[in-house]
């Protein structure tokens, strides 16, 4: 790299900037473009609801607190260091009984913001997602396996078998078995 090449020009080759600020300066009879560095600083506590057991961040006025350069290469490392956390109580829409559930979300990388990763941090939603995945697997097996399809049709149509299966799995619900669909209803 030539000595007189600016950092901005080096970065142009490596990673083109999104913001370029230049201005024209007259030097003698010639106009020269001068570049201005674009520097942005953010002062904020981005940790959300810090974990009470974790070591607290230094005060903003503390001399130990320094600017942290954040870019796409070190973003996850910086997030891991900040340890953003969100703790709240939200309405329980699953049970629909006006109760509230405690939710604690921890973000250590950008991937933690993906819907599936958020769901995996909330126990009732994680269980629903797992049940949904098991049902999707079962559905794909039924499509390709006629014996399994006919066996499940028999179990669904036979109330006694359904009750026995419910007792064996620990999910017996008397009201659900009273309304079990017939084979004709499930095929339509």
Structure explained in plain terms:
The chain has 188 residues and is of the alpha+beta class. It folds into three domains: 1-40, no CATH class; 46-138, no CATH class; 145-187, no CATH class. 41% of the residues lie in helices and 15% in strands. It contains eight helices and four strands. It has helices at residues 7-14, 75-82, 115-120, 123-144, 146-157, 159-169, 174-178, 183-187, and strands spanning 21-27, 30-36, 85-91, 100-106. The strands form two sheets. Strands 1-2 form a two-stranded antiparallel sheet. The protein has a two-stranded antiparallel ribbon with strand order 3-4. Helix 4 (123-144) crosses helix 5. The radius of gyration is 30 Å and the shape is elongated. The mean pLDDT is 80.
Order of helices and strands: HEEHEEHHHHHH
Share of helical residues: 40-55%
- The Cα radius of gyration reads 30 Å
SSE class: alpha+beta
Number of strands: 4
> How is the biggest beta sheet arranged?
2 strands, antiparallel
